[in-house]
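agent> Task received from the user: take the single chain below, predict its 3D structure, and emit structure tokens. No templates, no multimer pairing.
agent> Plan: (1) validate residues, (2) run structure prediction, (3) serialize to tokens, (4) report one or two observations.
agent> Step 1 OK, no nonstandard residues flagged.
tool_call: predict_structure(input=
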Amino acid sequence: MTNPGTTGLIFNEPELWEKSREGRCGISMPRSDVPRADLDPALTDDAPELPQLSELDVVRHFTRLSQWNFGVDSGMYPLGSCTMKYNPKTNEVQAARKGFAAAHPLAGDEFSQGALKLMYELEQLLGEITGFPAVTLQPAAGAHGELTGMLIIHAWHAKQGKQRSKILIPDTAHGTNPASATLCGYKAVNIKSGPKGILDPQVVAEAMDEETAGIMITNPNTLGLFEENIQEVCDIVHAKGGLVYGDGANMNAVMGIIQPGKLGIDVLHLNLHKTFSTPHGGGGPGSGPVAVVEELIPFLPVPRIQKENGTYSFITDCPDTIGRMHTFYGHFGVMVRAYAYILTMGADGLKRASQLAVLNANYIKESLKTTLDLPYDRPCMHECVFTDKSVQEYHVSTMDMAKRLLDYGFHPPTVYFPLVVDAAFMVEPTETESKDDIDQFIGAVKAIVKEAASNPDKLHSAPNLPKVTRLDEVGAARKPCLKG
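)
tool_result: status=success, residues=484
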């Protein structure tokens, strides 16, 4: 076996500034094809001090850094409520096609027919999948879609002649929901879920009044449970003149099985970068389309896309619109990937994906419920939520188990969320993981629980194998380094 110390691989990578050497250059500038001109004096201050590097320096630096990262292409990424599934590479091929990748947003409708057609058809497809008559692709991410949806609800109430002051938000909703409501001027009112982990219609009825603009419901919710009383809840809210906002970030569990627009939901956002298989994480890009019922179409953001006599164009003449939510029309590359994914899968494939996502999550739940504490022992949807109660006697926490999973080659699941469950350990395998991979994950969790009993210090110091080990969290909190 080769001695790792003699392979020539270096894993202590310095910063680019440390690698900089006077005179190194990684590019060859093309000969100027325009006349020289004096710069404005305001632009002629000292040149920025950038690191001087060769092309090889730059390539090796970022390649080494990429080898330290964990991504869905390198292993299972079971982040609960995030749907970090594998992204088919054909989606990347389509998004990289020159006609799409090089399309300029200022080219105008006449020279953008292909892009406009793709966006128009994607809106139609998403409307068909969700059961809504109209969709906007403009929002740039899930939380941006939430804000867009809540602005639409706000505008609708204003149009009725009386604005309202409150929004109901269950404790099983996504954490960004209260922020989206607050940004629209509403007071977020917390609604507790019932003993089965879902909404109790009676609790909603007691909280719903004429000052309440509506409710924001995540379905399936963050416990991985389907809101079985959704239609009754929608009827209660509508009876009091409110609207129902649906957080569709967890749509990966119900594609082709339910249509939220047929359940009484008025506004729904989707996460193309989760359900419809676009890479996400690390800040984006994302896409959070919003679908609405017929009554709310006038309030959609502009521009909107129309098809007339086989020609596609943007329209802005919409008096009741909430306005523009994004520069140009959103993250187009994400739309291409989602469009490719939907066409590749077809209706049967999308439904099958959800069925497998639910099957995989329930397989993990049943396999680990005697190993970890399971607060809601009932069939789940796309994710299941455990706690650390079974290892607390060894002074081992959810965080310790999550960190130790890194030593077994798995990205940790979501921890300490949702808040309705103490010390939550939230697992979402998605449909793209095979039984072999899931069995390895289950085996790793069982091994870690055994280690908690026999050698808890091994968990307290984890992770030990990755390039970056555990941070001093107490020190980081007391003496945070806030400089870039």
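agent> Step 4: summary for the user.
The first helix runs from residue 16 to 19.
agent> Done.
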